[in-house]
Amino acid sequence: MLLTAAGTAAAASWTSAGRLHTSREFHPATALPDGRVLVSGGFSFAGIQASAELFDPVAKRWQNTFPMGSARFAHTSTLLADGRVLVAGGANIDDGYVAPAELFEPGAEAWQPAGRLRRARANHTASLLADGRVLVAGGLARNHTELRSAEIYDPATNTWSRAASMRFTRYHHTATTLADGRVLVTGGDRDEDDFQRTAEIYDPRRNRWRRAPSMRRLRGNHSALRLPDGRVLVAGGGARTPGFTKGAELYDPRSNRWRAAASMKAARGFHAAALLPSGQVLVAGGFADSGTVRGAEIYNPATNRWRRTVSLRRARAHAAVAVVGDAVLVAGGGVVSGRIIPTTELYDPG
Predict the structure, then answer these.
(1) Which DSSP state fits 156?
(2) Does residue 58 sit in the same domain as residue 72?
(3) Are residues 87 and 224 in the same domain?
(4) Which of 75, 129, 172, 247 is deepest in the core (most CB within 10 A)?
(5) Residue 162 is part of which domain span?
(6) Per-10-residue mean pLDDT for the chain, 350 residues long?
(7) Domain shared by 2 and 49, yes or no
C-alpha cells in the first residue's frame, strides 16, 4: 500500500500511461516476465493491424516493435512457460479468418512462425494448460460459422493437434483455467445475438469435455476470473433480452455449483477486468445500454460486495488489459460512436 507523507493510505487513482503509436481495439495485451507489456494487432481506422508495441512501465512509454507476419484482430495472445508469447487466430479484411500462428520472443523482439491452426478462427479463447500446451476453443470461422471445435498447440514440437470438440458452439465466451488444471468455458453467442447460459469443463488429461451446471443468466462478452480461493467470478455481459447486465455469479469447482454473487453497481459488457494483488477484482469501462462506460468498481470476495472506485480518465470498451506489478494497465479501445482511442492508463489501487 502506498502511503502519503502524512502516513495515511493513498487513494486509488488512474494516471496516464502514454499514447499508443496506433489507435486500436479488439487487441490483446500480454504482460511479459521482464515487466513490459506486449500489445499486438487490432482494428484501426488505418486498417487491420499487424503492428505491435511494447509498454515500459518504468518510463511509462510505448515503443514500436517488429510487426507480426499477419494482420489480425479478435485474436488471442498467450504467455508460454518459457516467456514467449503465442498469438493465434483472428480476422482481417483481406483473408477473412486467420490460420497462421506466431511466436514473439521478447529478448530479440522477433516473431517466428508457430504453425497453422487446423481451423482459422476469431473471437475464440486460448488457455495455458499445466503441461505448457495451449488450448484454443470455439470462435467464429468463414461464413460466420460458429465453432465448437478445439485444438491444442504444443510449444515443444511447434505443432497443432485436434482436441475433443465442445458440446456447444460458442464465441464471445470465456475460458478460465481452474486450480486443478481443467478449463471452465462459460456462455457466449450460439447464433448471432443468441446468448447462452451453458457451461462446460475440459479435462486435458482425458481430452474430454463434460457439461457443468448452467449459469443463472444468459451472457456473452462478459468477464470470468479465478479468485485466490479457486472459485470463478463471472460478471456482466449482455444478451439480446434484457440487454447488458450488472449481475454476477460464482462457480465453485469443489461443489460444481453456481451461486449468485452481489450485483455490480453498473451494467456493462466488453469491459476490462483484472485480478488485483489483494485478491479483489477490478472491473472498468465497457458498453452499457446507455452508451460507453467510464466507471470502475471493485469486488471483494471476502465480503461479497462491490464498491465504486475512481473512474477511468476516458470511457472505453474493447480495451486491452494487463496486470503490471501492483497496477492494472488499460490500453486503447473504442466508444459507441465508433471512435478508436489511442490513450492508455494505469490503475493504482492505493
Answers:
(1) T
(2) yes
(3) yes
(4) 75
(5) 24-264
(6) 49 97 98 98 95 97 98 98 98 89 97 98 98 98 94 98 97 98 96 84 98 96 98 92 91 98 98 98 97 98 98 98 97 96 97
(7) no
